[in-house]
Amino acid sequence: ATNGAKWKFRDSIVIGAYSVSAGWVQLHELGHYFDLRHTQGDRGVTLPGQSGEGYTNPGDDEIEDTVADLPSWSRNEIAKHNFSVKYEKLEAEQRESVDDVAENIMSYHFLKPVNASLRRLTEGQLDRWTYATLDVFRQKVCDGRTWFVDRQTPCNEGTSTYPYDSVQLAVASANDNGGDIILLRPGEYHETITINKPLTIRATRKGPASIGTPFVYAEISAE
To answer: Which of 52, 113, 173, 204 has a 20 to 30 A CA-CA distance from 8?
Structure first.
């Protein structure tokens, strides 16, 4: 994907013929198009078996929730570098952080045998992707943007990391011309909303969500 000054056309994607059949490779290149770097960062681009600074020193992908990574590292090596213990000794949250880069769409771990269905992006990467859709060079390929809502989170930016806590706030932020999607994380949203624009509201794969004021049931006894 072209996203640097050395490329004449910033809004183009180039994929080798041998990679076209691998759907996640196409998604990897789309990630670059929407401003995502490799998980090993700018310097960590040397492939296994080669020498150079990038081979031993991970770069920075500028994403807060991805740990340091190199394409030659196993899960154990990622764990030792970031948490100073083997993978099997990690706490659940730390293990998830290692998996996030070992199975990441933007990593170079595809050089090893891997189940392609395990490919993932982190919350921070999803936010970077969303912000990139506001770029003048990216708007023309996007029908809209995605807004996140989570009633358990007291943040109000509408991103995956800092979602709205109100459905109505997301509706108000959505484009009046349509095309936006509002994703509701699991829970009951006790509010009455007004929708005055074309948009899509749906729950995430994490679980069901409902909108509305709960009914109050009262028992009435006949005398």
So the answer is: 52
How far CA 71 is from CA of 28, 62, 85, 111, 164, in Å, comes to 15, 17, 19, 8, 36
Token pair 């994703």 in the structure block, residue: 183
Q: How far is it, in rounded angstroms, from Cα 94 to Cα 185? A: 23
CA distance 101 to 37: 12
Which pTM was predicted? 0.65
Is residue 178 helix, strand or coil? coil
Pairing relationship of beta strands 209-211 and 187-189 according to DSSP bridges: parallel
What does the alpha-carbon distance between residue 143 and residue 124 come to, in Å, rounded to a whole number?
22
Residues of the chain with pLDDT under 70: 1-23, 42-56, 110-118, 134-143, 205, 215-223
- Per-residue pLDDT of 7-50, as tens digits, reads 444 566 666 655 555 567 778 888 888 888 889 886 544 544 44
Do 98 and 75 meet the contact criterion of CB atoms below 8 Å apart?
yes
CA 99/CA 76 separation, integer angstroms: 11
Name every residue whose Cβ is closer than 8 Å to that of residue 156 and which is 6 or more positions away in sequence: 162, 164, 165, 166, 169
